[in-house]
Structures are given as structure tokens and as C-alpha cells.
Amino acid sequence: MGYKVAIAGATGNVGREMLNILAERAFPVSEVVALASSRSIGKEVSFGDRTLKVQSLEHYDFADTDICLMSAGGEISKAWSPKIGAQGCVVIDNSSAWRYDSDVPLVVPEVNAEAVRGFTKKNIIANPNCSTAQLVVALKPLHDRFGIKRVVVSTYQSVSGAGKDGMDELFDQTRAIFSAGEPKTKKFTKRIAFNVIPHIDVFMEDGYTKEEWKMMVETKKILDPKIKLTATCVRVPVFVGHSEAVNIECEKPVTAEEARNILRAAPGVLVIDKREPGGYITPHESAGEDATYISRIREDITVENGLTFWCVSDNLRKGAALNAIQIAECLINRKLIQPRSKAA
Known about the structure:
Layout: E1 3-8, H1 13-24, E2 29-36, E3 44-47, E4 50-53, E5 55-56, E6 67-70, H2 74-86, E7 90-93, H3 109-112, E8 124-126, H4 130-146, E9 148-157, H5 164-178, H6 210-222, E10 228-235, E11 242-250, H7 256-264, E12 269-271, H8 283-286, E13 292-300, E14 306-313, H9 317-333
Parallel strand pairs: 1-2, 1-6, 2-5, 6-7, 7-8, 9-10, 12-13
Antiparallel strand pairs: 3-4, 9-11, 11-14, 13-14
Helix pairs in contact: 1-9, 4-6, 4-9
């Protein structure tokens, strides 16, 4: 028997990726419903070899829907997720609206899959920030073995993290520069084409940005509240794929070779680490892939028990759509939910 699944925000980058991944992974669906705002009614999106017509989120009845994959933004999620959950449908939300709610599990299945059991308090499970998701997948096996005390991370985040408008702006600015035109800035605070911007989300009083704060708080909630983390988040002119330069300080002695072997055996991780030109992964190669790639593993000689590595992942997949669907699979595999309607 299959599950009835609704995608809220089906016309966006992440919503479309959710539809692709549901089909790729042969998720046990009886029906898939594409939802968006009323202005998108009648638009078409692809689900495998089928075409779905978009329906209005505002007028949809969730009474017989089992899972709602919510990727419609924080404000919409705040307004709708409790209502959807109250109808007995489990919401897996991709926004930041519920991540810091103590009654809502924040889950990366390779790291804290057991936390999904807490969904019953509000019928909502939160997806972490895209930059956090890939980071904790890499940190988890190292923390289990060596005990991570402190993390220093610099991110190189693609424009798709800012949605379709971000991708369009990079494309339009690049085209303008090559045609001797004037690149126009709308989505980002400065020109993104052939540039990098050390600013993602709003600034906070302590000088960190909200994106950096998210990484700190979410890593603690998902992995270990005792871990200290500082981040610098940078937007780069890449369409898809977030990269991170990570330095960790551990409680126990760590060698690069031991870390490499542990990461090779870790779920969701692929190690590509040859100490030669091209023996590493870049965001271009991660696009369309499910894994979190680790390269450039080496000992950090500036601190005791230190390690440094390079971490790359497709932010639309592991950073958003794939992680949400893996959460749904956890619910099913643990028999925490059952279909509410008969398969079509």
C-alpha cells in the first residue's frame, strides 16, 4: 500500500527536485499532489514520466494525505504546517520556521534518524539548513570516534541556495559582462558574477549573519550541544553545490589516515582524496549526486588533535530535497506512520 504525498512549493527549485527524487528512489506512493500558491494553479510539473497539474495549497484538503513535503518558505510554513499537522498529515518542512522549536525534531537521517520519533508532538519534522546538512554528515563519524570539541568552517555556497532568482541573477550578470553590458544587482547585495560575497541572510547584533548562526545552533541540536562552532558563510558564483573548508579540534588524537578510513565507511559519505592535481571533488561534480563528498583530508598542525578537510554536496539534494525524502523513508521504515487511504 502506498502513501499519498503532497509537495507544497512544487514549482520551486527544491519542490521540483523533491518530485524528481521521489521518482528516482521509487518512493512508495499511491498518489503525488503538486501544490503551490494560487497564482501557480494549472502549471505543470514532472513526476517521473508523468505530468502533474499544480493545485492551490490554500484550498487543498489534507484529510487523506499522509506526508506533506513543505518547501514554500518560512512564512507559509508557519501559517500552514500546524493546520496540516492537525489534520493528521506529517509535515517535513524545508524552511527555518520550525528548526529551533524544542517540540520539533531537526533531522539528518545519517546522523540522528532516531529523533524522528518526536514528530508526534506537532506532526512536524524540520529539515536543517543546506550548509548544516552536509557538515553534520561529515562530522558525525568523526565525532563518534574522536570527540569533536570545536569546529571552524568557511562555506562557499552556490546561488541556488538563494532560489531561482539567485540563479537567474548570476546568469544575467554573466551574460551582461560578456556582452559589455551593465550587470544589474537585485537579489544579492553586490555583484555575484566573477565575485564572492561574504554575506548570506541578515546581520545579527554580534556581527554574525543569520546563516552562520543557523549552522552553529543546528549543529548543536542535531549532533551535540557541547560542540563549539564558528562559521563564515560566503556566496560564490556557482549554480549548484555548496563547498565547505572545515577545521576540527578533537578530544582524542586523530590522524588523517584514520579519519579517511572512518569517513569511507560512513553512511552518505564518499571520500575522493588523492594528493594530486584533480584528486578532489568540486561543486560542479557534486551537482545531481546524493553523496556528501570529502576531500583534502589532512592533520591540522596548528592545534592539538586537529583535522582539516574539504566537504562538497549538492545543496538542492542532500541540503534540501533528498534529506526531506530520507526523513519520510525513516518514518515508513520504522513503521511510525501508516497510509490513511487505500492505494489507487
